Amino acid sequence: MKRMTLAAVMMLGALSLGPLSPEPSGASSLSLQDLQKTLPEIKREFRGVWVATVDNIDFPSKRTLSTNEQKAELIRIFNVCKAMNLNAVIFQIRPSADALYNSKLEPWSAYLTGTQGEAPNPYYDPLAFAVEEAHKRGIELHCWFNPYRATHPAQKSPNAKSHVSNSNPSAVRKYGTYEWMDPANPFVQKRSLDVMLDVVKRYDIDGVHIDDYFYPYPITDESKKKVPFPDSDLYSAYKSKGGSLGLNDWRRKNVDDFIEKLYKGIKSTKRWVKFGISPFGIYRPGYPEGIKAGIDQYDELYADALKWFEKGWCDYYTPQLYWPIAQTPQSYPKLYDWWLKQNKSNRHLWPGNYTGRTNPKDGNWQAQEVIDQIAITRKGTDDSGNIHFSMKAFLNNYNGIFDALKTGPYKEPALVPESRWLGDKKPERPVYGVSVDLPDGGPDKLRIVVKSDRYGQKTEDMFAYSVGTSRVNGVSWTPWDTFGTKELIVSGKGLGKPTHVAVRAISKTGVASDPFIVELK
User: Fold this and answer.
1) Quick check: 290 and 334 in contact, CB under 8 A?
2) Coil, strand or helix: which one is 181?
3) Which helix (H) or strand (E) holds 9?
4) How far is 370 from 38, CA to CA, in rounded Å?
5) What does pLDDT average to over the chain?
6) Domains 2-42+423-520 and 46-157+183-215+257-417 share a fold
7) How many beta carbons lie within 10 A of that of residue 179, not counting itself?
8) Neighbours of 270 (CB within 10 A)
9) Which of 271, 371, 375, 456 has CB atoms 3.0–4.6 Å from 428's, for a disulfide?
10) What is the pLDDT of residues 444-487, one digit of tens each?
11) Within a 10 A sphere around the Cβ of 451, how many other Cβ atoms?
């Protein structure tokens, strides 16, 4: 590795407002103001992917992997995300009242080691490791929790002594092949809230995320009749105390109360941590007109998804629009447009896409279907985004979906849209010392090492840097990209080394600072 020194590093934006000093050849004569005018606009779009751990869907691929093998899988996940310009990972850390992190409240997940309650050996904390690896690459890490599911049949191993089904069995209901924590039980509400806020307090995460599992999806008996959820004892107790709500309204209120408490709890703990909800994609059959569904989440999951969106009890909403564009009874564009019109609190609307349907064994969608769905989303707002289920589709490149997105709609990087209601303060302009060397790989690559930390910023206020480079004296710039580390390697791909580097600080709510421009001579 050959070390280079800079003939000069002209730091603009903090010190100099005059023209740049001349270079030996091809010198720039642009002033700071003129250079700033040449900088590209910051492209904004939320590009997320769910990383599911239940039944080892995405991670870890097996319950027998060693610690190093699990770490290698997580690194590959984040490398693939960065390669295709995704900027957020929704990481499932509580599949069934268990934990893929070091928790004092719930046992280690069986999906890590095959045995619930058993920590990885040699020890590591998958969530802490995932946060670190995501942030190195300028990728947000959102924690995905299931608030009520207690046991999934895919678990296989028995529940640990510390699992809620053993420590508080009265809070758990058997329902078909699942065990479910009763949403009406005050202990359950407190336990789930405590679990989520514990993670918010202890880890540098960027979001909390819940999906469509509230009261369980209904099951039927041998005669095809729906089996009622076994909560008659708690409902009778409610009625005996003078409660006047009907059963369905009472169940919905239980879930409403939890959603509201969770949103307010997150904001009082760390205001900048985003809260996302991913409900079933259809509010109710007939909303909008002509839309049909096999389930009515309002009356069967007791989820008033529209109410939460209208009330603003979230920072982003991700209705699972898991149907193809041409499927009229569940039309992707018609449903997206309907949800867009319900956004009374002006929250982000980033729908979920069933990108895993590109698997030839699970729908065999062509990649163009997903590309067209992204195009529909982009037409709706200037802070658009999509979340893809699930990471396996990109790791396996089903029907060329990785290649299609990387060379198509995700060809250029994008920053996560701003969430100014969580904090709109513009970060201070970063002022960095810079050293440069040539890494292995030839003269078209340049390593830029930031010598000082996030200058002038409180760590809790900062998420990443945004970096752009110019190879023709400020006339043409690469798109802004985000990096959470102090070291960045840029490649000219035959165009030569950069002449200028521009750096912005990005706050945890997505607000960008003014640029700081460095001339490399």
Assistant:
1) yes
2) strand
3) strand 9-12
4) 33
5) 88
6) no
7) 23
8) 17
9) 456
10) 566 666 544 444 455 556 788 788 878 766 678 888 988 876 56
11) 9
SS3 content of the chain, % helix, strand, coil (to 5): 30, 20, 50
User: How long, in residues, is the chain?
Assistant: 521
Tell me how far CA of residue 17 lies from CA of 35, 36, 163, in angstroms: 11, 11, 63
Fold adopted by 46-157+183-215+257-417: TIM Barrel (3.20.20)
- What the block records as the tokens of 430 is 């970063």
Rg (CA), the chain: 25
Distance of alpha carbon 292 from alpha carbon 220, whole angstroms: 21
Structure tokens at 175: 């329902």
Six token digits for residue 123:
């020890």
Residue whose entry in the numeric block shows the structure tokens 């997505």: 510
Q: Which two tokens stand for residue 198?
A: 């514990």
Region of 131 (left: φ > 0; alpha: ψ -120 to 50; beta: rest) is alpha
Specify the residue for token string 């409180």: 458
Q: Domain coordinates of the chain in residue numbers?
A: 2-42+423-520, 46-157+183-215+257-417
The tokens for 237 are 């107790």
Residues 308-318 pLDDT 10s: 999 999 999 99
| Separation of alpha carbons 301 and 318, rounded Å | 17
